[in-house]
Amino acid sequence: MRALVRPASRLRLPQGCTSVVGDALDASTFSMHVAGCDTFLQLVGTPHPSPSKAAEFERVDLVSARESCRAANAAHIAHFIYLSVAQSASVMRAYAQVRMRGEGLVREFVARGAGRSATFVRPWYVLGPGHRWPYALVPLYWIMERIPSTRERARQLGLVTIAQMVRTLVNCVESPPVGERIIAVPEILEA
Question: Looking at the domain assignment, is residue 146 inside a domain?
């Protein structure tokens, strides 16, 4: 397993993971390390997304998706896993739109090669270190899931944990689809 990292993050990888120092916004800095792999897992994005970061989503999230697709295409990757986001008409519209454009780039990558597949993982909000304030929303979600008119939306935009995300991503790597697969919040919660 290989992971693209910045120089300062090199020592933060788990044991057994080979670091690839490069720039996620420039495929030429890491594409040579993608050769020989069968799966590409794209997790790069703007930290702590908020409505005020729309320009950063374009500059980081979209560009890193494009460059990842370039590297995966050159290496003839068979399975591309893209961390996207659940769809919502909320204040995070710019973030969701950029992630959908990233999905479009991945679909173009799949269309360029025979036998390629893609998995789109679409959480809404991931709870974990530094991301604990949304725990205050858990009672609200509980109530919304019991009201028929808000039940489905609450389930689609539910909160997931880092442990659930890791299990989901591992499952995605271990069980590639034929064609395209979308993993939404309800499936992440079951992982």
Answer: no
Any domain includes 15:
yes
Phi, psi for 12 (deg, rounded to 5):
-90, 0
CATH assignment at residue 109: 3.40.50.720
Number of domains in the chain: 1
pTM value?
0.92
- Render pLDDT for 58-111 as a digit per residue (tens, 0 to 9): 999 999 999 999 999 999 999 999 999 998 767 689 999 999 999 999 999 999
Question: Could you report the per-residue pLDDT of 111-158, keeping only the tens digit for each?
Answer: 999 999 999 999 988 888 876 677 788 888 889 889 999 888 888 888
Contact (Cβ atoms closer than 8 angstroms) between residue 180 and residue 110? yes
Which H, E and C letters describe 23-50, residue by residue? CCCCHHHCHHHCCCCCEEEECCCCCCCC
What pLDDT, on the 0 to 100 scale, is given for residue 89?
Answer: 62
76's torsion region: left (phi>0), alpha (psi -120 to 50) or beta?
left
Enclosing domain of residue 39: 2-124+161-184
Is residue 25 within 8 Å of 64, Cβ to Cβ?
A: yes
